[in-house]
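Meet the record:
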Amino acid sequence: MQSSGGSVRVFALVAINGLLMSFLDALRSLAEQVADGVRLIIEASVFSLINRADARAVAFR
């Protein structure tokens, strides 16, 4: 009896699907890390600006 190769195709599709899902999960994780880093940079910049404004206000008194 000849095999149609159906099981091989299913295995290949499952493997490709798993690979794509892993890749997408890694991209999502990286995007979250970048967003957290950007958020920290923005917060640090805002606090720096606030501190400078406070220092200038004290200097003018």
Notes: The mean pLDDT is 84. The helical segments are 6-59.
